[in-house]
Amino acid sequence: MTPEIDDLGFPTGPTTKPQLVSGLDSAILFHTIETYDAITINEYKSFEADKNGHTGARQGCFDDCVIADALTVLRLFQ
Q: Which domain holds residue 48?
């Protein structure tokens, strides 16, 4: 089941966030999405999976642009 994007946002949780990250990963590997924005690139550099497999920015960093890119990929290929 693929969650729908609507005007109220997108639920990120144990099921949906891995789907977002996986879709973004594929889009980056296949050059479906590219970025040249310095802020976004810095966020990508601090985006990681912890020992439990949870993904996000390192402590003290942000991942808003990374998640925005992931939502864009989801929306484009939904």
A: 16-76
